[in-house]
Amino acid sequence: MVAAPLPPPPVAERRPHVTAAHGVRLEDPYAWLRADNWQEVMRRPETLPADVRAYLEAENAYAKALLEPLDPLKAALVAEMRGRIKEDDSTVPTAYGPFAYAVRFRTGGQHPIVVRRPADDPSADESVLLDGDGLAEGHAFFQLGSWSPSPDHRLLAWSADEAGSEFLTIRVRDLATGEDLADAVPDATGAAVWAEDGSGFWYVRLDAQHRALEVYRHRLGDDPAADELVFREAEPGWFVGVDRTRSGAFCVVTVSDHDTSEAHLIDRATLDGAPRLVEARKAGTRYDVDHHPMLEGRSTLMLRTNADGAVDFKLTLKPVDGGPESDLVPHRPGVYVLDHAVTARHVTRLEREDGLPRIVVRELATGAEHAIAFAEEAYALGMDAGPTFDTDLVRFVYSSPATPSETWDYDLATRARTLRKRQEVPSGHDPEAYVVRRLQAPAPDGALVPVTVIHRQGLALDGRAPCLLYGYGAYGISMPASFSGGRLSLVDRGFVYAIAHIRGGADKGWGWYLDGKLDKKTNTFSDFIAAAETLVNENFTSAGRIVSHGGSAGGMLMGAVANLRPDLFAGVLAEVPFVDVLTTMMDESLPLTPPEWPEWGDPIRDAEAFARIRSYSPVDNVAPRPYPAILALAGLTDPRVTYWEPAKWVARLRAATTSGRPIALRTNMDAGHGGASGRFDRLEEVALAYAFALAAVGHPDAAAAPPAFGAPG
């Protein structure tokens, strides 16, 4: 049976659009794809202008025709990945006050269910507080946000996003009746911090540009339009958030950009408290706040901070009512303090050295410390001290690329570990069937870039194996060497799966992040290329057999390396890719442009930043080259990476490529930055990406792929 011929790909109309900056003429013939009413589209996708919609739908139709022959493979991938998910899974209950709260799923359910039962009777019947599947009915997109019980546990503040635009509505549920009160607070980030008297809560409201700059207090029963402004940040490039200290004494108003932070405390006794500054912002200094009500006889804040040159952070004590500060855990270069949690008798910190994490417990009374660490070559470790202050328990979650996650309760006083849950893989999983390695890739400047690798036992390392190489490299976000059942569908088909822990992330400390931003941004790209070359040099794969994968800022990485070294890659998977960097960073009206300047630079006012960003911005550096096969995934209501960035990038790529290999754009017309909201709907998107990867390398399971893929044998 002869396959139907592939239709020609869409050709975006070129419309003259010229601007100038710093004496440079900038032509953007696809600027019209940015809808003038983009703010309205975020809330009401149906208002997208007809010409833009027609183009995006034409791209979707082409992507469907290109990938439709792979539908049987995609279905098999979905079945495999779903088979590794325990459909009626649940979290380990967390004690908070008189109840233990948990999240679970029902078999076949797409969305989480929030439940609780009495903390002192684990055999008691649970109460369902929020049924995500029921709440999602009738919505093309639904995502449950935050939820927080009132201090007396009679009410639940909860939030949801019903468009994918990340404008959330906070509602309040009466847990005795299961009904929501009339209170419905729109345009929120989602988090709510209750006043101790239960009269209401503090929350952050988003403005029309989707910027989180204002904290309001909502009194139960009041019209949200009359809510009182508590705090407003004047700088549009900053983010505001609210949180609660574990001690329960304060609501913390956090204020930060990508470089600097400050915090304000509000006494939670009543809703009428006013914010009080902890420490004034200082450029380049960041700090997080926790609190102990009676440390050495006084109310004391504990700050995780990089002040005074502590590049990898330290822990500092600061009396609430004033007095000299002192270091509790001094700075140690190369030992990055990621997080800390203060409980009644201990402080527990999560730190990373040479790319590997550990948990360190300190007894406050004596200063004695001990560590929780593991011997695997590469692994992931997370810590959760929970909401309770007077406790000797901390919870940690351990996994590795081959080992499903394990949830442990750890007694800080006795050092006893209790396994609370081991992730089930219903279809079966043998960790011994896989090899996990940690490589060190030499970058051009001599830095060693960690690369985590997983492959099947017995795989011949002769350069013939295909490889998927994942990277991100921005904002100080580290890529954990954790377990993912989905990846095994590639690994079991002979792929090497690799994660490049490149600069721009904080995988080797905060200095690793600083070496991958602003004027050092190109280190991110050269590190990723070095990781790919090391995989080739050590015979894990070969040039032209690698599929690169990244999303958001990692999607920008995908665009950059496709321009720099297209020969290395058989395919590029770019999810919600931030690829029109220069144009976006010069548009102050967009939601995240001012907040992004500390990460990339301000090309409006800084000619050097303009030239630097222009030199690597993927859209601006597309040129006639033999590009690999490329699949870009976008979301129409995405407020972080707007849909027109990947649309403009694909239009330019298709006009420039000399390889004849397919370049496709698929825009989810009902979702935003995170893609589909249901857990099984999301699997469909992952399977689509992996089917594309298999086709790009000419895998036998993708033999039905159109000849346009032109993959090597």
UniProtKB/TrEMBL annotation:
Record has Calcium as a keyword: no
Keyword Repeat found: no
Matching InterPro entries: AB_hydrolase_fold, Pept_S9_AS, Pept_S9A_N, Peptidase_S9_cat, Peptidase_S9A, Serine_Peptidase_S9A
Annotated keywords: Hydrolase, Protease, Serine protease
Segments forming domain Peptidase S9A N-terminal: 10-422
PROSITE patterns for the chain: PRO_ENDOPEP_SER (PS00708)
Ranges for domain Peptidase S9 prolyl oligopeptidase catalytic: 482-698
PANTHER family: PROLYL ENDOPEPTIDASE-LIKE (PTHR11757:SF19), PROTEASE FAMILY S9A OLIGOPEPTIDASE (PTHR11757)
Record family assignment: Belongs to the peptidase S9A family.
Protein name: S9 family peptidase
Organism: Methylopila henanensis
